[in-house]
Hints:
By secondary structure, this protein is an alpha+beta fold. The chain has two domains: 2-82, no CATH class; 100-233, Acid Proteases (Cathepsin D, subunit A, domain 1). Helix content is 39%, strand content 32%.
Amino acid sequence: MNRLFWIIMAAIGLALVLLMLNNSAGQTFGIANDDFAQLVWVGTLAAVIGAFVLRSGRPLGTLAKQFGGWFLIVLALVAGYQYRYELQDFANRVSAGLVPGSPLALGQDDGRATVTLQKALNGHFEARILINDAPVRVVVDTGASSTVLTAADAQAAGFDPAGLRYTVPVSTANGVTQAAGARASQIAIGGIVRNDMQILIAAPGALGQSLLGMNFISTLSGFDVRGDRMILRD
């Protein structure tokens, strides 16, 4: 085994010398240097595998099954890497169906983050966002001038609803109610992040679900609705 090791190392060393000497020519033995280097690599791998097979003493059928299993594993890993973005989109589609408000897709457009949302069964576009790192489920409401949190969501995001003054009138589906002004250190949806945002916190029991309003949406470079999908662009 030690003899074979030194033979392989000598062959690799000779190949490297030939590649360096023929760098300007671009060819070695009439073969492009890149192809020659790949041939040396494949030959080295084949020699190592062949030596293992010969020295193992195991039946060829057993070895073939083992190598076949490892080959399929490597093939699956390579395929997973090559199709990683398609698999990510598939996973997002599944999570969007299982967890309401999960982004249907996350991506980039001209270097800017994009988030694609799927319309919920209630006909609204919902999103799971982070407010001060706390997950909050909101309705994306282009008719709301401000982002408004329910008292429960505000408490989860680190605010104290009991210590706020509800003096700001807010129109909701149930009529006009009172809300309190506050500032969120960060609001994030996918890769779209905004810091130090003005928000409103509805009085306890006054709002059924939090709203992501135009004070956040207007900071985007654009958004559009395509059928059952809404695309937000940073």
